[in-house]
Amino acid sequence: MGKRGVLVIAHGSKNKDWVHLVDRAVSQAAVDAPLATSFLEYVPGRSVVQGIAALKQLGVTDLAAVPLFVSSGSTHIEEIRHLLGVGGEFHKVMIQQAVPGDLVVRLCPAMDDHPLIVEVLAERAGSLSTQPAEEALLLVGHGSDQIGFQERWQSMMESLARQLQAKLGFAAVACATLLPDNVRQQLLALSTRYRVLVVPLFLSEGTFTRNKLPKRLSGAEVVYTGQAYLPSPLIPHWIEAVVREAWADKYGQ
Known about the structure:
By secondary structure, the protein is an alpha/beta fold. It folds into two domains: 4-110 and 232-251, Rossmann fold; 115-223, Rossmann fold (3-Layer(aba) Sandwich). The protein has eight helices and eight strands; from the N terminus they run βαβαβαβαβαβαβαβα. It has helices spanning 16-27, 48-57, 75-83, 115-128, 149-168, 183-191, 207-217, 234-251; strands spanning 4-10, 35-39, 62-67, 104-107, 135-143, 172-179, 195-201, 222-223.
């Protein structure tokens, strides 16, 4: 058995507060191994290549890579797969692999409909609700216009919708995406019958939650705060859980 290490990989942002929230969540994860956080773009000196190099200097030979992404339907997951040398054709012309041949890599799943993510969203939706039997919950994610990726987004969101409706007792739970853009369509269908609560499926607050989504909600009577997954104490626990699952799957412990 080699020396284990963990690399959390996020998209990155020019907004320092966004990066700080990611760093804080990762720092709170109780992982008994060297831990680093890297970003795909916008954060100088924190690339995946640099993160791997830092972990290798600490003697890491067995890497659990955690994609801090809302959905496995993100095309960035394919980018990460290729970057880590564990498959992925989508971006292979655009980037070079970052993993040296003596490093064993296990790529963990994205957040998707993990039970802890369901709990995060239940907290978000529950804080907006007053009479769930008379309310509809609208989950809004980024989505994708690419074949295969769009279907993964839809499947993940439908699973979240089913679980949240069963847990919280809303009259209806529906899903919408910004790409393809069907937010207004879903909102109008719900608002004729119910008080509508809107919960964004985004890692952290930013342009999408503060500008792009509110524009689509403009003029409609909805309850929306824009609160994203972070900050939530459950996100560090999610990191811990997927790392445990990756190592249990490999080592049986």
